[in-house]
Amino acid sequence: MPQRTKRIQDLVVFLAVLGVGTLLVLRGVPAESLATIAVAVSGLYAAWRGHGGPPQPPASR
User: Fold this and answer.
1) Which domain of life, per UniProt (predicted)?
2) SS3 state of residue 27
3) Per-residue pLDDT, 27
4) CA distance 47 to 13
């Protein structure tokens, strides 16, 4: 996947999560619940994107 596509996808997901968090706060959900939800969602997103391993150095030519 090209780097630009990944960055756009990250931005879209960030804005979606930010919007949902704002809506939940406005509806009166306790902050402790939001923190738990945020940690769970970030873990799922990281697993989906494959950020589990250490960064790989660029291949030299």
Assistant:
1) Bacteria
2) coil
3) 93
4) 14
